[in-house]
Structure formats: structure tokens, C-alpha cells
Amino acid sequence: MTKTIVVVGAGKGLGNHVARLFGQKGFRVILMARNENALEEYREDFFADCIETYTYPVDAADPETLTEAFDQIKQEFGIPDVLFYNVGITELDEPGKMDSKRLMQRYQIDVASAYHCVQQVVSDEFARKNGAILITGGGLALYPMAEYTPLSMDKAALRTMTSILHQQLEPKGIFVGTLLIKGAISIDPKYNPQILAGIYWKMYTERREYEIIY
Fold first, then answer.
1. Is the separation of the CB atoms in 110 and 150 below 8 Å?
2. Residues with Cβ < 8 Å from 131, sequence gap 6 or more?
3. Cβ(194)–Cβ(179) under 8 Å?
4. What is the pTM of this model?
5. What angle do CA 54, 56, 58 make, to 5 degrees?
6. Which pLDDT score is estimated for 21?
7. Angle CA(183)–CA(51)–CA(175) in degrees, nearest 5?
8. For 131-190, what is each residue's pLDDT tens digit?
């Protein structure tokens, strides 16, 4: 039976590289992002490589769109085998200019919606499948920067969330893993998304380290 990976936060960087690698390993790929036109482009690109691919437009700022998409996926394909959450707002912020309302909006996207997606898949069936949850972390969780104040706070919260989920779900046979990336993807060759995708695949297949700092 074909396994399924759901990628929340598809894009030409890390999201699609992870999706493509899993697709090349025989997974059905489901891509989620806000831009419908971009999703269609990605789908056609993956189809050209003979990867079974489906797309769902969602907005991580609106959890209801995530619920609706996962409901459709579960109805059509069943509970997925892998959830990959790869959403985070990486734009620079002017220190001291972030109000609490905007801070909470960013938290919803960077952290709370990740937890919401986990809630959509964690079940007895997911456990029977030895399901896996993979989450893109960041070095800002360890080394916060004022110009990335919300993202620094959110990556720290995301790291804590992942640790808690690991404690809760490992006894059920569900793997939770995060990769804390300490550099800018695609700018430094060390952080090439193809290399990072390979780390996620190794993390998924070996199921040993729940947190890797890279």
C-alpha cells in the first residue's frame, strides 16, 4: 500500500525538496501552501517526475483551512504516514516595533498551527502505521536575534512543543523529529535544501534522534 506524506508549507526550498525525496522513495505526496497557482506548478513538476501528487490550498494563519484540508485527505487517502510542518515567517522585524496582536498572529502560524496539524493526524491508526511527525526548527531557538524577535520566540516554543510531543507519542510508536537549522537555507551551500532533505529522510527511517542541530 502506498504511503502518504503531507507537507504543510510547500515551496521551492526545503518543503519541496523533502516532498520530492519522499516521493522518489515511493510516497504519495500531498502539498499544502497558500498560493494555488504555485501549488499547481509544483504538482505538474512532480508529475513530470512520476510522483503521485495532490495539492490543497491552506493558510496557516487560519486553522479552519487546515482542518478542512486534512478532513478531505483522510476521507480520500486515510490517515497519512508522515506529517512535515515547514511553515515559518522569516522576514526581518524592526526591534521594539512588534505589538502583541501581531506577535500572536505570528505565533499562530509558526507554532500553534503546527500543533493543530499534529492533532489532525495523531490517532490509533497513525500509531498502527508507526506514523512520523517532522518539524522544521531553527537555530534561533538556541541563539535568538532581536531582528527576528517573533521567529526567535516561536522557534524556541516550537522546540519545546516537539520535545513534549516526543515524550507523549514515542510510547505509542509515533516518531516526532525536528531539525534545528542554524543557517540560511540556499544562501550557504552547507544548508542546501537537498542535503537537509536527506537528513529528514535519515531521521524518518532510523527513528533514533528526535532532535538534530545542524
1. yes
2. 79, 80, 81, 82, 83, 121, 122, 174, 175
3. no
4. 0.96
5. 155
6. 98
7. 55
8. 999 999 999 999 999 999 999 999 999 999 999 999 999 999 999 999 999 987 766 678
